[in-house]
What does this fold into?
Amino acid sequence: MPDQGTLPEGTQTPGTFPGATGRGSEKERQMFAVLKTGGKQYRVKSGDLLRVERIAAQPGETVQFNDVLMLGGDSPVVGAPLIDGAAVQAEVLDQVKADKVIHYVKRRRKHSSQRTRGHRQKLTLLKVTEILASGGDTTGVKAAIGTGAVPGFTVETVTETTPAPAKPAKAKAAPTAEADTASTGPANLLTEARDGTADDLKKLTGVGPKMVEKLNEAGVFHFDQIAAWSEADVAYMEEQLGARGKVAGWVAEATEQAAE
It folds into this structure.
């Protein structure tokens, strides 16, 4: 029979657990920092991705946050309000915008007005690379400053332009005889009426005294001239006289008048 002051074999001592002795002291706590930027506080550790109010830096640059409020880990340190020499360094990945926020205002009484405005906050995407407990004021790394303190700041955009492929030159078609005729006009134009007497061109549809003057100035005085025109001649005379769609009808009428 066991003594009253001893416990049976296999019985655990109250308040003790197997394998738990000293576990908390052996595990190292990962270092973190609490920094302040853009009027907000962020708890970060090395390797974190962070979106903060836009800072004046280009993608690819390394910036340093010097306003560190607290350092956590094996030896926590709390600033008063900042920790001298502490800093957080981060790499600028991109300059982005937050999701759009819609602000809608409606006044019902008396005014019955409504207004809708949208806003997308400009942010900077960062990756935390290092947390410094001391010596941050001697690193020489560019300080993370908001764009409001740097007038005229713009984000540099690099666009890769590839030259467009050259278009093959189109071979010029050889001018045809019909095209030459169209550019120079009918070949039967005259400088004056034959025998000093011109035909009565007012018999053609839509031809008045003014159109007769234009025809005479162009070298047309007789029906047989109009009756001999080709399609190219008709197109040329329509351009010269400003009578689109009429000259083709004159050719048929002039053929009948010339036969009489």
In short: DSSP finds six helices and eleven strands in the chain. The radius of gyration is 47 Å. Residues 29-149 form one domain. Helices lie at 23-26, 177-184, 209-218, 223-227, 231-241, 247-259.
